[in-house]
Design goal:
binds S-adenosylmethionine, 3-stranded antiparallel sheet, alpha/beta
């Protein structure tokens, strides 16, 4: 495989630039003010599937600026958030100080997570907008297995890969991307703005992403020695993946009624 680090460097620059825009939260996408005022719960989906986290050692991979990490801390988890964006980690530490919630934040690539943190974890928490940024799921799954205590588990919830290959054109959903993107030939996106609706232009607008099939996700975890407890498919997602999507309950989005149903997201628990 050729060197994939230029792709990850470009992605990091993009994420660094998004952080202050997301933190300003002009249109309330991240509901940061509400978080600071009254705490932001995770979505009902994660809460229902994750169970009680009080007293559990949780590593939150790709934690962005730490909102969900701090939400987990608020529920009594002993949390470590990890992200490769220095700007995100700086902001996460600031938010932890502002809220007074106990949390450790580590700046590292997911693939370096085992070296970057000490100890083992009861839960690896990986949700919403994660593996599309990772070229190699075998290394991802091995990293997670190495972070977990025996008996500990990965909780994963993210966009469904079968949905990620579609684009909306003239009111129809059409396949646009092949599934199982090769590590050294990522999908290239040029997006002038971030996804929150804030019009601030991005300079580092080019990103590189990968679509991993459901079988690749599951098989990488099994090959890393984990056992699947459940795999669920859901009709909703925390952001509208297509312009045609409509709001659903609990801050989620779903397909409009005239589109034949298919899952927009997938969640699973895999145990070491
Ligand atoms: C959509 S955000 C995830 C949001 C997250 N679900 C949350 O709790 O808000 C994607 C995050 O992945 C991080 N990221 C992307 N590639 C990464 C990598 N190779 N290693 C570590 N973090 C990475 C980005 O910096 C960004 O903060």
């Amino acid at each position: 495989m050729s060197d994939i680090s230029p792709f990850l460097d470009a992605n990091r620059r993009n994420w660094d630039e998004r952080v202050p825009i997301h933190r300003r939260d002009r249109n309330g996408f991240y509901a940061i003010e509400r978080f600071l005022r009254e705490g932001k719960p995770l979505h009902a989906l994660e809460i229902g599937e994750l169970g009680d986290v009080a007293g559990k050692r949780v590593i939150h991979l790709q934690c962005h600026f730490g909102l969900d990490t701090l939400a987990l801390a608020r529920q009594g988890a002993i949390v470590t958030g990890l992200d490769f964006s220095p700007a995100a980690i700086e902001e996460a530490r600031r938010l932890a100080a502002t809220t007074g919630l106990p949390a450790q934040f580590v700046c590292a690539d997911v693939y370096d997570a085992r070296r970057a943190v000490t100890g083992h974890f009861d839960i690896a928490y990986v949700t919403w907008g994660t593996i599309c940024w990772l070229p190699d799921l075998t290394r991802w799954a091995q990293t997670i297995a190495a972070l977990l205590e025996p008996g500990g588990f990965l909780y994963f919830a993210d966009a469904h890969p079968n949905m990620l290959i579609l684009e909306e054109r003239d009111g129809r959903l059409v396949p646009e991307f092949a599934i199982d993107t090769p590590a050294d030939r990522p999908l290239v996106f040029d997006e002038a703005q971030t996804y929150t609706g804030d019009p601030t232009p991005l300079t580092a607008s080019r990103t590189y992403q990968w679509v991993h099939s459901l079988s690749r996700i599951v098989t990488s975890l099994i090959d890393a020695g984990l056992t699947l407890d459940f795999l669920h498919e859901h009709a909703t997602l925390p952001w509208p993946p297509f312009p045609m999507c409509v709001p659903a309950e609990g801050g989620m989005y779903r397909l409009p009624d005239h589109i034949p149903a298919f899952p927009l997201s997938v969640s699973l628990r895999a145990r070491k």
